[in-house]
Amino acid sequence: MTAGFTGDVLGAVSFDDAVRRVRAFCSDPKSGWVSFDLAAHHARQAGHFATVGPWSMLWAQALAGRVTVGDLTSFTSRMAKFADLVRGVPEDVALHEMDADARQRVARLCAFGFVGAWGPKITKVAAAYRPRAVPVLDGYVALAFGYNRESFSSVGGVRAHGRRPDRLAKVVDGLADGVRRDREFLDAVRDALRPHVPDIDLASQLRLLDMIVWTSQDDRMSRNGKLANTWRDATPGEPTPAAACAPVVL
């Protein structure tokens, strides 16, 4: 996945480590599996992703997107542009199955943004609309590909690796190639997870890879109150079932 990228990139992840990390992620109530993946599944079934509105930005908050009132206000005047970019990405085609033109449309959607809401926030929103095609590109993913943590966030950003849209497009291609090349690996990880995470099939192949990359990158780092390999070494609990996230009719 990080072949062709330079710097302190995320290397190969073993099968056992990938399974352990994703299982821990899906059993952690604060990880986003419940608030984003399972919640978005029910919202999708209810038709909520057939429209774009001011509150659509709040989907980023489900993955700790730090959305502000100002972000909502700024997004309001840009909803039509965002909707047009989402509309340009096929809903029923996975990223690794797309041709070059469709991948470019995904990259343009990932590069959409405005002051205060660039790649990390926007892709968390866009991934809810197009879960098979749009990766979540936050600071951890930037680090995994050898970039500065803020490389997807600012206009222009870190010039050492080219323009921000170019960096995003390169990572989109890297993830697409990774899913296609490592399809058997991902299928095996999914098979191993099913007995422990019964709803893992709600996650697309791209999202499964997202979770492996994010937890593996997090495990590379230690900080105050957090040791390296926290996800790999965690004792996972029972994951929340998708049915528990079903909306309640008033």
Uncertain runs are: none
Counting DSSP E segments of at least 2 residues, the number of strands comes to 0
**Strand-pairing-aware structural class:** mainly alpha
What integer is the average pLDDT? 94
Number of helices: 10
Estimated share of beta-strand residues: under 5%
Describe this structure in words.
With 250 residues, the protein is mainly alpha-helical. 47% of the residues lie in helices and 0% in strands. It has ten helices and no strands. It has helices at residues 15-27, 33-45, 69-76, 79-87, 100-111, 119-129, 139-144, 164-181, 183-193, 205-220.
Topology overview:
Elements: H1 15-27, H2 33-45, H3 69-76, H4 79-87, H5 100-111, H6 119-129, H7 139-144, H8 164-181, H9 183-193, H10 205-220
Helix pairs in contact: 1-9, 1-10, 5-8
Structure keywords:
10 helices; mainly alpha; about 250 residues; globular
In short:
The chain has 250 residues and is mainly α. It has helices at residues 15-27, 33-45, 69-76, 79-87, 100-111, 119-129, 139-144, 164-181, 183-193, 205-220.
